[in-house]
Specification:
heterodimer; A: mainly beta; six-stranded mixed β-sheet; five-stranded antiparallel β-sheet; B: mainly beta; seven-stranded mixed β-sheet; four-stranded antiparallel β-sheet; 0% helix; globular
Chain lengths: 113, 115
């Protein structure tokens, strides 16, 4: 089955710096890759997603890149702010496992003021 | 964006009682809903997938008689934890997908504490 790895598990950056979180997946048939942000005590919120026919997508300070050959995708946050502090989860979805998402283990991002 | 609500947000119950958690899609029709369980500082663990009008599909290791799932309408799914025990204490989160069944939209979660 699909396996999604995520690195790093924790990340601390200074306010204003950039943060990058990387995920790798094992199933080459996976075709949809969302990123979720989860604040303490709350449910995950979709922040950006990318489909396999696109290499990069950007939304203001957030961008996602996808390398299908290497089977990895990354989340880039620029000009980080304290409110970006949260746990970020990547996920993969594909035809071999139906409607389900396979989630990475999460990255705890701390933005230091 | 699509909004999913959960009720209650937190519940404390005595061991042996049953607890029902509701998950509603507020502004779209959710053909599929998912129930997850999350332990502290861990990722989301899928418990079951439910399609409106049919029986839920449970993940391996999840007791279907203990975690009863009903998806009676396109906007409501319920999870009932029967005969709850302290080890059932956890954060339960639902998600829903719309007609294109691509993105999952998550509810705010329900924190269950069984005493």
């Amino acid at each position: 089955g699909e396996n999604v790895e995520q690195h790093p598990s924790t990340l601390s950056v200074q306010e204003g710096d950039s943060a990058v979180i990387k995920c790798t997946y094992s199933d080459s048939a996976s075709n949809y890759f969302p990123w979720y942000k989860q604040e303490l005590g709350k449910g995950p919120q979709l922040i950006i997603d990318i489909r396999s026919n696109v290499g990069e997508k950007k939304d203001q300070r957030i961008a996602v890149t996808l390398n299908k050959t290497a089977k990895h995708f990354s989340l880039h946050i620029t000009e980080t702010q304290p409110e970006d502090s949260a746990v970020y989860f990547c996920a993969a979805r594909g035809p071999n496992y139906g409607q389900n998402f396979v989630f990475g283990p999460g990255t705890r991002l701390s933005v230091l003021p | 964006g699509a909004v999913v609500s959960q009720h209650p947000s937190r519940v404390i119950c005595k061991s042996g009682t049953s607890v029902k958690i509701e998950c509603r899609s507020l502004d779209f029709q959710a053909t599929t809903m998912f129930w997850y369980r999350q332990f502290p500082k861990q990722s989301l663990m899928l418990m079951a997938t439910s399609n409106e009008g049919s029986k839920a599909t449970y993940e391996q290791g999840v007791e279907k008689d203990k975690f009863l799932i009903n998806h009676a309408s396109l906007t409501l799914s319920t999870l009932t934890v029967t005969s709850a025990h302290p080890e059932d204490s956890s954060f339960y989160i639902c998600s829903a997908t719309d007609d294109n069944q691509e993105t999952q939209y998550f509810g705010p979660g329900t924190r269950l504490l069984v005493l």
